Structure formats: structure tokens, C-alpha cells
Amino acid sequence: MTTFKITDELIEKIQQLIEQKQNKELTTLLSDLHYADIAEIIHELDTEEGVYIIRLIDAQKTSDVLTELDDDYRENILKNLSAKEIADEIIELDTDDAVDIISELPEDRKTEVISHIKDVEHAKDIVDLLRYDEDTAGGLMAKELVKVNENWNVLKCVKEMREQAAHVTRVHSIYVVDDNDVLKGRLSLKDLLTTSTRSEVKDIYIPKVDYVYVTDTAEEVAHIMSKYDLEAIPVVDEMKRLVGRITIDDVVDVIREEAEKDYQLAAGITNDVEADDNIWKLTKARLPWLLIGMFGGLGAASIINGFQDTMMVYPILLIFIPLIQATAGNVGVQSSAIIVQGLANNSIDGELIKRLLKEFLLGLINGGTIAGIVILVSHFAFKAEYLVSITVAIALITVIVNAAVIGTFIPILLHKRGIDPAVATGPFITTSNDVLGILIYFFIAKMILGF
Amino acid sequence: MTTFKITDELIEKIQQLIEQKQNKELTTLLSDLHYADIAEIIHELDTEEGVYIIRLIDAQKTSDVLTELDDDYRENILKNLSAKEIADEIIELDTDDAVDIISELPEDRKTEVISHIKDVEHAKDIVDLLRYDEDTAGGLMAKELVKVNENWNVLKCVKEMREQAAHVTRVHSIYVVDDNDVLKGRLSLKDLLTTSTRSEVKDIYIPKVDYVYVTDTAEEVAHIMSKYDLEAIPVVDEMKRLVGRITIDDVVDVIREEAEKDYQLAAGITNDVEADDNIWKLTKARLPWLLIGMFGGLGAASIINGFQDTMMVYPILLIFIPLIQATAGNVGVQSSAIIVQGLANNSIDGELIKRLLKEFLLGLINGGTIAGIVILVSHFAFKAEYLVSITVAIALITVIVNAAVIGTFIPILLHKRGIDPAVATGPFITTSNDVLGILIYFFIAKMILGF
User: Fold this and answer.
1) Structural domain of residue B41, as residue ranges?
2) Nearest Cα residue to B227 out of B199, B258, B255, B246
3) 8 A C-beta contact, residue B270 and residue B289
4) Residue B34 domain flag
5) ipTM for the complex?
6) Does the beta-carbon distance from A318 to B320 stay under 8 Å?
């Protein structure tokens, strides 16, 4: 497939067509494009131009465009649309997407928009979904699904399903419920294609069905769906009544966002920022971590300051500070990243003590190798005294082992206390290992060189 | 759903049952579990126990278990199975999963295993798929799909589909081809449920269909499928003939691995390692990056060594080295991470010069804030001379701006040259910014303090 590529010429052409109100040409041009591509185009236009396109193009297409827009852009565009116009867009969407948009509106606008949704069933479903926290299964699910009663026969099934399928964008599974709407199992589409129409549902359905509760977290849902390779999963309430279904495309976003969040935390960026955000938002996301690093640096400064006497006797010790610091930081980040990722994938098991022992051994191997090289360089290149080289080598090994153990221990501890271990990566772990590393260095120097 | 939780008791019980060869009880116990859960259990057992389970349980289930195992575990288990036994497992799998397993075998075992696959069509498909690089659409696709000829009517369609569907685990889309097997469009299952059986395919099919070429990269496929929310995509050859289809569950793995790889690179870990890998593998993944950091540290050492005279005149300058270094490293990682993530999501556009200007401004804001605090601390807490505090402040601003610009520039440059920009994050960018930061610091000190 030749992927759609946004070009400056295309954007200019669209801006020109908007300015000249060439609606017919504009409609033709855009109608060939996928909604995800139109969303990309709108990201390049200003708000008025975006609103112009949303108003011009059929709501059947623009409703999907709205769901694809970044939050900021969507907010700006929705501000410029009337409640009636927003309702017209929302009517075209599945309930989960509709709720995503409505939930971003101010409280009074919500009510106004919902009052314009004429289909009472659709409005009811949306209001229902507004109750759930967006980070739970309830917040991810849609009300559109195909379900059949266990007491029906296949003929009645197919008839009812044709009816229901008209409201469902993609049919994944056919869920089987009893008279109280309690989830009993599922029928696969394949079975339906290959079974005689005279069979009864209760004789052919598969009773083994994975499901989640409305209150399960989005991460749990993502974990279950990706572990068991599910493309859709039914959602039940506390009475096991079928209340919705979640599809894999919604979960792909959760998985990606989860991974990106960990990555950003490791790199010292809070909030979900993107390269194209404005400078103020980027500063807000980045400055706090730099300040942590700054306080670490100032802490290190006062440690070195406290050893001023040493500086006079063994000035050569000071040239190895960057080496000690960089090594401590690097090891800490490595150890914590591996644990954080393991925790995210649920692949960490076994005892804490065994894991710490392993990191200890790893630290000894890595530390020994690096200390060996450094002792040679220190002796031959920097002509350092014998005892100074020994000091640097022992300090390196100690610092590496220490950083490895801390980098492993802290994320596991945080995880056990229910805190996201990813906050313990990046600048946080680097800074504490920096300061601790320098402290260890001077302490060992004091012991060996005895000043 | 109450998620399956592996416990020490369960593992012990299973080990006991294996030792006592209690096959009946073992089968009952495991038959209730999902294949992904059995794979988790096998990860806790030794190779012989794993082989015992694979041999004991029906191939219909264990074949899926094999696909879920980590590469190392699978390799060990396959070594202990005969070619015939492997073939029996593979027969149960879809072609894409079958190829994933066969492609890991040594060349002569491959031939032997394939010779045991009695279904010639299945064997042909597998051999076909072995041709493709695993990081391409061809390497991801399966041969199992449902396709109909544009010249059929719906009745013939349904009849043929029932036949085809028996070989396909999940029916996503029905692809429409012409007499030469060239992809023409698709039929949705929903259409099929709601259309009269007398219609002709060519009158009801949707000609707009997304597809990828066999040679497209796995990342391209992942990008297209997640951008356009596709659950399956057909794969065509150079003549646009339909040769396979890729489902979203395979792509979810690609997306996750992509994100994890970037994260690991940023944290200074090469290869795809996990916390549970052995020490040797972990050392191999971590030591190279620590060595880069070490050479950086030694570089910094010789820079400081070169300014020995200064050390004597202004020893207080030395206590700020960790601060300069940590700040340079943190800023560099932040800037590069934001760009790398933007590049991975295809959300980076606009001119390079504008982006560098933005980072320059960001650096000024962050640098100004930090320098302001540090100048106060340096003056009041460390009682540094006026000119020394000024030196540290100016150096901090310069170092931050420099690190921000370099952190932005290098990933973009690498990306333009077709190199994965993620390699430029983590220890690599930290180390170069460390060294450069210290160089800038001493250079500015020299200019201001004039030694």
C-alpha cells in the first residue's frame, strides 16, 4: 500500500480552497481520504480551518476524524461547534468513542449535547458509560455488541443478529446470555457459518469465555487481551450480567501509551508530552526532573566540599569523579529499566533476595571488568600513585554493585506498595546513585589513603 | 475475570505429578488451563519436565503452548523432541506460527520436520513462508484466509466459505479476488449477514481495501494497522496477487517489542533481554554500554587533568563538576527521547531548523531557572567568589542549551540516514554530553577567570 503522505503542497491547496470557499472541490479532495489522514491534515491547519472542514464534510466521516484528533486540537474545535453540531457527530459514533468525546466537555455542555441525541437508547447507553472511570474496563467498553439468548435456535439467532449487526461496526463474537442477561458463553462466527440452522444455541455454544469486570483496570484488560490473543472481550457487572465489550484496537492504544509513559519517565519527562507541544508545556514536563538532578548535583558539591583537605593532598582523585558518577548512573538506569519492564510484562517472579543476589553478581562481573581497565589507564596514562589507582578500582566495583542493587530494589519496593515503579527510573535513580556514588568514592579513599 | 496466578504450590504439585508419572491427574489439571498459562508454567520447570508435558498433552493444545514460549525455552524443548513429534505439533498451527517455529531449527532438522507434514498444501504454504525475512509483512503473514471470486454469487460464496473457514481460526474479512487472484476488494461479515443470498459478489463488494506488500517492513505494517484501526490486513505480491493476511495480534507483539526496544536502548541495554535471563546474557547486554560510559569518564578525567593549574587556583570550581555533568546528561536524554518517540510515531514534521530553535529556547528557559538557583546556592552556601558563581551559572546555561540541541539534532540526523535513532539515546547521548559539558565548563571558566 502506498501510505498516505502529508505534503506542504496539499496543506497549502486545502487552505486555499477553504479561503476561496470552494466547497465542492474540497469535498471531492477529502472524500477519498481515510479519516485518520484527514485528522493528520487538521493537525496542520488552524482552528477555524479545522472547524470549516468538520462542518463541510459529512458527519459520518468527520465523527471518526474527531476521535483521531489530539486532545488539544479537538477541544479547540469542539469549542467552536454548537451543541447540536456536536450531537450530530456523536450520533455517528459507537458509544465508547462518543463517550470519549462527551466526557471532555464542560458539565453544562454535556447535558446540552445529550439532549440533542434523538435516539433514546443511544443516549441512555452514553449516559451509562459516562459513569465509569476512563482507566477501567467500563471506561474502555462500548455498548454495541451482538448477543443471543441460550434458549433460541440458530434460525432465530441469525434473524436477531442481522438486526443487531446493523448497529455494530465490527462483529467479533456472538455472546450467549440467559434470561437475566448473565453471560453464559459465546458462539464463534465460524461455528455459525458451519452449523445447521436447526441447532439450538444451548447445544452449540462454547461455555468457556474470557471476560473482565467493569471495574478492572485498563492495564489489566490490556494484559489479559494481549496474553490470550483476544480481539474482543465481553465486560460484565458485579452480577456477571453482560454490559459491554472491548475491542483490541482500543487496547492497542493502552499498550502503546503504557510503554511510552515508562519510556518518558525513564528519560525524565512527566506528563504525556509530544515533540510538537508548545514550549510552556514542554518546560512543565521537563524542568521538574532537571531540578531533581540539580539538587543531586548540589548535594554532590557539598560532599566534595566536605573533603576539601583531601583535594589538597590527592588532587588526582578529583579527576575520576565524572567516571564514578557516570558509571553509577548508567548501572542504576540499566538495573531499574530491566525490572520496570519485567514488572510491566508480569514476567518478574521468584524471590527478591535471589534477584538482588543476581544483580550483586552481575555488578561484580561488570565492575571487575571496568575496574581492571581503569586501573591500567590510571597507572599508565595518568601516572597515578599505586594506592590511588587501587582506590579508584575498588570504589568503581563498590559503586557498580551498589547502583545495581539499588536499581533493582527500589522499583520492586515501589511496586509492592502499589506505586508505579517507572517513577523510580531516569533522573530519580541517576541522581541518587550519583550522590551515593561520590559519597562511597570519598569514603573508600579515606579508608585506603587514610587522610 | 480472576486472572490465572502461578503459585509455588502449583509448580511443586506439577513437578510431583511428573515425577510420579501421574499422567491422568496431570492431564486433568492442565486441560483446564489456557495455553498461555501452561507456557508460563513451563517457564518455571526444567527442560525435561517441559518436554514431558509437551509429550503428554494433546498437540492441539501444546502447539499453541510452543508458540508462547520464550525462544530459549522453546529451543531447549525442541532439541529433545523428534522431527516427527515437532511435525505433529506444527500441523496444528496456522502457517505463520508454524513458520516461526520451523525457522528456528537447524537447516537439516527443518527438512526432516517438513517431510513429516503429510498435508502437502500445508507443507507447501510453510515452505513458501520460509522465504520471507521475519521483519517483513511476508514474515508476519499467514496463508490461512477466506477469499471469494468476484464472479461468484453470495450462495456459492457461503458454500465455499464454509469450506475455507474450517481451516481458518478466526474469520476477519472475506477478500475478493479476480480470476488471476489479484486482490479486488473485500466483503464484510456484516454485509454477508445482512445481504440477500441472490446478490452477486461483484455488485456488493467494497472495492476500497487497505493492503500491504510482502516486502513492507513489520514496522510499516504495525503503523498502518494501528493508524487505521485494522484487525487484519491482506498481503499482496508485486503483481497485487493475494498471498496472505496479517492479524492484529501479531502486530500487537511488534508494537510492544518496538516500544520495549527503544526503552532498553535508552536505558543502555542491547539485545532483547529480560530480567530472568542468565547472568552471562545480561552481562553481554549491559557491559558494552557501561564501557562507553567508562571511556567518557576517562575522557572527562583527562580534560580535568589538562586543567590542573586551574584546580590549584580555583579548587572550588571542581565541586560543581557533578552538577554540570548530571545536568548535561539529563537534558540530553530528555531531548533525544522526545524526538525518538516522535519519530517512532511518525509525528515529527516541520523543518529541522525550527525544531532546533525551539530546543534552544527551551534550553534557555530551563537553563536560566537552574542557573538562577545555583548562583544563589553557590554564593550563600558555598561562599564562592562572585566570578566563580557567574562562571558556574553561564556554564550551566550553555551546557543545557548545547545538550538540548545535540539531543535533538543527532536522532534526526541518524533517522535521515536510515539508522534507528534510538541508538542515540541513553548512555551514548549521556556520555557525549558529559564530556562536552565538562569541556564547556572549563572553557568558560578560562574565559571568565582568565587563568
Assistant:
1) 8-130
2) B255
3) yes
4) yes
5) 0.73
6) no
Q: Is the pTM of this model over 0.90?
A: no
In the sheet with B212-213, reading across from the earlier edge strand, the strands are B212-213, B232-236, B242-247
- Cα A246 from Cα A138, distance rounded (Å): 9
| pLDDT per position as a tens digit, A326-345 | 898 888 888 888 888 888 77
Say yes or no: B288 and B319 in one domain: yes
Residue B2's pLDDT band (cuts 50, 70, 90): low
Residues A413 and A310 reside in one and the same domain: yes
A266 touches chain B (CB under 8 A): yes
Q: Does A258 fall in a domain?
A: no
At A194, which amino acid appears? T
Residue A184 neighbours by CB under 8 Å, 6+ apart: A150, A176, A177, A178, A205, A207
Amino acid occupying residue B284: K
Alpha-carbon gap, residue A164 to A171, rounded angstroms: 10
Same domain as A165, residue A112: no
* A313: CATH: 1.10.357.20
Residue B277 has a pLDDT of 77
Contact by Cβ (8 Å): B180, B203: no
Report the distance separating Cα A220 and Cα A262, nearest Å: 16
Last residue within a domain, chosen from B63, B98, B130: B130
Looking at the fold, whether A329 and A397 belong to one and the same domain comes out as yes
DSSP secondary structure letters along B180-223 = T-BEEEEE-HHHHHHS-TTSBHHHH-B-----EETTSBHHHHHH
DSSP string covering A72-121, please? HHHHHHHHTS-HHHHHHHHHTS-HHHHHHHHTTS-HHHHHHHHHT---HH
Q: In chain B, which among 135-154 make CB contacts under 8 A with chain A? A: none
Interface contact B347, partner A, CB < 8 A: yes
**Residues A427 and A314 grouped into a single domain:** yes
Q: Domain total for chain A? A: 3
Cβ atoms of residues B126 and B93 within 8 Å: no
Q: A73 — contact with chain B (CB < 8 Å)?
A: no
- The rounded distance, in Å, linking the Cα atoms of A281 and B150 is 53
